[in-house]
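Hi! If you just cloned this repository, the fastest way to understand the data is to look at a raw example. We've pasted two of them here, unedited. The first protein comes first, obviously.
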Amino acid sequence: MGLIQSVDPGSLADQAGLRPGDDLIAINGHTLRDVIDAQFYAADEVLTLRFVRAGVTHDVTVRRAFGQALGIQFAHPTFDIDIRRCNNLCPFCFVLQNAPRMRRTLYIKDDDYRYSFLFGHFVTLTNLSEEDWARIAEQRLSPLYVSVHATDLETRRRCLRNPHAPDIMAQLRWLADHGITTHTQLVITPGLNDGPRMEESVRQLATLYPHVMSVSVVPVGLTRHHKYGYRPHTPAEALATLERVEAWQAEYRRTFGVGFVYATDEWYLLAGRPVPTKRAYDGLALQANGLGMVRDFLDEWRRVKRSELPMIRRAHALFQAASLVTGTLFAPTLTSAAHAFSRLTGIPLRVFPIVNEQLGETITVAGLLCGQDVIRQLRNADLCGDLVILPRLMFDHPDGVALDDVSPADIARALKKTVALADCMGDVLDALLGNSKLLYALAADMPAVTPMQAGGWAVEKYL
């Protein structure tokens, strides 16, 4: 049953008299398994909604205007919270490399095609039943986001550590034949699926364009708990990978009109290369996979610097200085922006790159920082001002906590500083002026606004 969390005012569900706390169980006689069923079966002109309120089942019939949405927010997208588990043992799987004694649900390997359709999570397509395939075709669940890693069957099976993994090219052709488009990714591991195997994968995926819409090339992330003998990429390897991707892009722009294959931001930062312009991403929204996030940050900073900073001076700020926290990979980019910000406003900003001690120094991204690492490394540091600004991505979780269950309020208490969360320099400015909705003051309660955004944690978003 679909527990209703909220009903949009004036919506079809509101007109039908549905309320938060009701359980929607069927539409036009179709039992609902999840929010996808609710969206699919609510497309008819006349809807009979069956729901349960206080243990009593009710039926109500309403007529839907063209394009009118049902207007229901459910407590869980899969209703029963039964997220599909992964049947692979990828050596680079984050779950298998996790630190001990962390949150229980961090050790659950999810691989759910429904979350792929709803939130853009990448899945392997190795655990689908015949019923799942039929449903994907019937309900046109498109696009899907697929972790390919290698198109060669034996190489892919080594990547997944699954000797029974099916032929991914056959699966992608089936999806194409049924009108389903896909975005794909290759997580590149040195000595496993790089070099000629990477080229083979890109070339074979390109044969399915435009049904395969993109290939994201992602560098492997390995924690200090990795047990299978692989290693991360060197800066020289990152540069060589970028050169190959750029050569492919030039070719595919001539044949397809788009770049088709894209390197994620980590390659550019590791190689010390400028990230591409926005138009180089061809309008694709793959930032959740690390593609174009740095460009978004830089473009937003350019707008803030031009349109907002000329009017701001230190006297306007609630906080006269601040410390900015980030991972070691993004620290040079953030430091450059912080220096320019301080120069233009007179407000001192100091960047603190946090070394990821719990997962290992090879994990350099801000979204995987742990709260205790922040506390340990900042507790005796010469902090700048009374405000500490943390990456919002650290807390992209329903409970607003980092990987180690530490909340922004916990960090504020430990450091005896006000804490704010930010994604961009505009957020930094809002925090300094006291306008941030994600401000955690020592004497205040937790803010009502959750730091999590749609499509956040794959495993834990609804567990």
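Ok, and the second one:
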Amino acid sequence: MSADQLRMHLPLPASFLPGTEPRPCPEVLTAEEAVLYLRLNMVDVKDPEGTLAYYRRRGLLKGTQIGKAVRYRRVELERFLDLLTEDNPR
């Protein structure tokens, strides 16, 4: 079996949230988890959760209202990263 064929039969690796104790990434994330997923806590951002709100206001990132809280679907965070990558001139 070739390496490509073997990769087709292996399960995709799960996404994990970074941290001292990595944990599986849920499909629906809190703002705190979204900050970790995007690693906004690792760059010079004074208010990472405010930055998420800024991205939502600009229409770059979609949040989902669940009860009184805004949550972020992992697929939306990935779409957001794709958008930033496409717009990146580097």
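That's it. A detail worth noticing about the second one: The chain has four helices and five strands.
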